[in-house]
Amino acid sequence: MRSCTALLRSLRAGEYDKALAALYALDGAPDSLKKARDRACHAAEAFMNTFTPAETAQTALFSGPGRTEIGGNHTDHQHGRVLCGSVDMDMLACAAPNGKQVIRILSEGYPALEVGLDDLSSREEEKNTSAALVRGMAARVKELGCGLAGFDAYVTSTVLSGSGLSSSAAYETLLGNIFNRFCCEDKLDPITIAKIGQYAENVYFGKPCGLMDQMGSSVGGAVFIDFDDPINPIVEKVNYDFSGSGYALCIVDTGSSHGDLTGDYADITKEMGAVAAHFGKKVLRDVSVTDFRTAIPALRQECGDRAVLRATHFYADDHRALLEAAALKNGDFDFFLSLVNQSGLSSALHLQNTWSVHDTRQQAIPLALAEAERLLDGGACRVHGGGFAGTIQAWVPNGDLEQFKAGMEALLGEGKCHILHIRPQGGCVVAE
After folding, report:
1. For residue 199, how many other CB atoms are within 10 A of its CB?
2. CA angle 266, 271, 272 (to 5 degrees)
3. DSSP-derived 3-state class of residue 207
4. Which of 192, 213, 247, 303 could form a disulfide with 169 if both were Cys (CB 3.0 to 4.6 A apart)?
5. What is the Cα–Cα distance from 279 to 289, expressed in whole angstroms?
6. What is the Cα–Cα distance from 188 to 173, expressed in whole angstroms?
7. Is the pLDDT confidence value at 258 over 80?
8. Class of residue 277 by CB neighbours under 10 A (exposed 0-12, middle 13-18, buried 19+)
């Protein structure tokens, strides 16, 4: 590592252009690389202006990418299988050790935070805050035997808020890589970093999330995950060059709010759990599809039709995630697209997470999907992430991208259709 001044000088001279291009210029456009270089330089400059580090401070740039769910909608909490991927929208930090027993972070657009390392116990008043994530990750890193050291970090983010790209996982992956370099001598692998992030989110932040978000962000590229053993999931990186597929990945923001949808999300878990409980199990993964289908008449009476339909979705989408990963491995993108469309249809008809029954006037997701289907000549589209509101995902033929973007933004507003790329690398040190 080098001083921040030296790092900035090297960034401006283009010495890190290859590394930046691999993360942020996946479309091959020269202006994409320039924007990435300018952003990296901005992070370094802002770090120096905020923290005025000593000239001897060893400084580095770190990245934690957002993630997109590709296959397996609402399967992870039933110990099922998913396919996800890291994207080229990320959280970028310039950071350096500060020689103190405190972590100081300034994220653009948010108040500065400080977390002392002398007391790493969970604090009720920090629930649902970034400070909880920092403290929780520090506590877990210490439990793993690493010697903690304070650091300063300036963070800038391109991860869209409320987009289903998981800004929290990006933040956790970013922090995990900083801890890894400054405190753990680079001994933590991406899967361990993901588990540290989940621990902080579950225990300190107060959100009982699964591990998919953190794995997608930390491991990078397309990632297939089998949660049959959620403590030790099977994680497989799927090697596929999406840039050569002839399709662009779009995340479309419908402008609808996730507020007051906690009950809708909880109902999915509750109803799938009720079906599993009929068989004396906690999750659907532990119930065979044959036993489920045989018991449908009894399940309708005991759990209701919607619960049966949601369980039907689980079994189908759990298997589809496996098929999607295989299709990519085999280079069969057409079959992959057909599976994405099947997943979208199942989410709408069986899982029923495209709109909330508590507000029938707000059906932005089905409306956006209908318009996407009208605009697409080939390709695929589906609800993205948790659903009920938020975003849709579309795979658009490159030749139709301009028309698709214009059509979606005519419906939803300018800037609502975002073109992303699956980046091959997860959380990492970008420059040092």
Report:
1. 20
2. 105
3. coil
4. 213
5. 12
6. 12
7. no
8. middle
Strands (DSSP E) along 145-206, which ranges?
151-157
158: enclosing H helix or E strand: none
- Average pLDDT of the chain is 94
Asked whether residue 107 carries a pLDDT value surpassing 80, the answer given is yes
- Tokens 């400080």 correspond to 114
Which position has the token pair 């579309």?
394
Which of 317, 321, 330 has the alpha carbon at shortest distance from 240? 330
Structural domains in the chain, CATH included, are 4-240+426-431 (3.30.230.10), 247-420 (3.30.70.890)
- φ/ψ (deg, to 5) at 325: -60, -40
Taking a C-beta distance cutoff of 8 angstroms, is the pair 318, 81 a contact? yes
For the cut 80, the answer to whether the pLDDT of residue 338 exceeds it is yes
HSE-up of residue 390 (Cα within 13 Å, Cβ side):
24
Do residues 119 and 323 lie in contact, with contact meaning Cβ atoms separated by under 8 Å?
Answer: no
| Distance in angstroms between the alpha carbons of the first and the last residue of the chain | 5
3-state secondary structure of 422: strand
β-bridge mates for residue 306, sequence order: none
Q: What is the pTM of this model?
A: 0.91
Residue matched to tokens 């878990």:
269
DSSP state of 249: E
- CA–CA distance, 431 with 427 (Å, rounded to integer): 12
Q: What angle do CA 176, 185, 146 make, to 5 degrees?
A: 70
